[in-house]
Write a structure and sequence with these properties.
Layout: H1 4-27, E1 32-35, E2 42-44, H2 45-61, E3 66-69, E4 73-75, E5 81-89, H3 91-96, E6 102-109, E7 118-126, E8 131-136, E9 140-143, E10 146-147, E11 159-163, H4 172-182, E12 186-190, H5 195-203, E13 209-212, H6 217-229, E14 233-235, E15 249-252, H7 257-265
Parallel strand pairs: 3-5, 11-12, 11-13
Antiparallel strand pairs: 1-2, 3-4, 5-6, 6-7, 7-8, 8-9, 9-10, 13-15, 14-15
This protein binds D-MYO-inositol-1-phosphate and calcium ion.
Length: about 270
């Protein structure tokens, strides 16, 4: 089995190349290619081109591994590894010219199912900021080479939190009720617009915590490993805090996690 740090190095190399392509395409203008689950859920030509680049590089370098990508779907591999890819996380930011977007690449073992997989390595690259977050299982997490650590406890002023709202308007009332439950824990609330960066910012102590309903596997696969490797906790619904997933995803330092999860799921 390939070592986690070798898979991490490949994820980083591909994320950098993919992020540079996204950045260049952004300077050339952005065309919306289609809408997906809802009219607000868009895909640009760049999302598709960047995912194709990532998939082609993985096929060339790791032909036996599986693939699960936001834009081009799933393919089973012959090894125990699957690459979980969001080519541009924060597509609406990208389309509007807000620099908070990222390439998110994780490699996991086991069934390609976030309920049971184990993340081995991850890279989240924010090309507009020139920031590369990376992690390997049991190897720690870094930002541009500097070791990351979550905030163990929020300050007395409360937690700096982030959340997100899905594209489906029918979920917004529930999302806003959740915000009302969580606000007593907060000093303030951010909506950055890219889940992978929300997780990365928890990992780096820029946020104390993050919660969101409705995430897809490629939204949390890489970011969740960044948080746990930076000493934080991730979870969702289910026994023992569960796992991040569509029903709920929460990430925070150890001093905040239980209270944030309970408020987010309405316990
Ligand atoms: C979205 C972003 C956003 C989150 C949505 C995601 P996309 O991913 O991560 O912050 O609120 O749930 O779908 O569509 O930009 O790849
Ligand atoms: Ca995306």
């Amino acid at each position: 089995m390939t070592q986690p740090h070798e898979l991490e190095a490949l994820a980083v190399d591909i994320a950098r190349e993919a992020g540079e392509l996204a950045r260049v395409r952004r300077t050339q203008g952005v065309a919306i290619a289609a809408t997906k689950s809802a009219i607000a859920d868009i895909v640009t030509e760049a999302d598709r081109e960047v995912e194709a680049l990532i998939r082609a590089r993985l096929r060339a370098e790791r032909p036996g591994d599986g693939f699960l990508g936001e834009e081009s779907g799933a393919e089973r591999g012959t090894t125990d590894l699957t690459w979980v890819v969001d080519p541009i996380d924060g597509t609406v930011n990208y389309a509007y010219g807000i620099p908070a977007y990222a390439v998110s690449i994780a490699v996991v073992t086991g069934e390609p199912d976030p309920e049971s997989w184990r993340a081995v390595a991850a890279a989240v690259f924010s090309p507009a900021a020139g920031e590369l977050f990376q992690a390997a299982a049991n190897g720690g997490a870094t930002l541009n080479g500097d070791r990351l650590a979550v905030n163990a406890e929020p300050t007395a002023a409360g937690a700096l939190l982030a959340t997100g709202f899905g594209y489906d308007p029918s979920t917004h009332a529930g999302d806003l009720a959740r915000v009302a439950r969580v606000m007593p824990l907060a000093r303030d609330l951010r909506r950055i617009g890219a889940a992978s960066l929300d997780f990365a910012y928890v990992a780096s102590g820029r946020l104390d915590g993050y919660f969101e309903r409705g995430l897809q596997p490629w939204d949390h696969a890489a970011g969740a490993l960044l948080v746990t490797e930076a000493g934080g906790r991730v979870g969702g619904v289910g026994s023992g805090g569960g796992r991040p997933g569509r029903a709920m995803s929460v990430a925070a330092g150890p001093g905040l996690f239980d209270a944030l999860l309970a408020a987010a799921i309405g316990d």
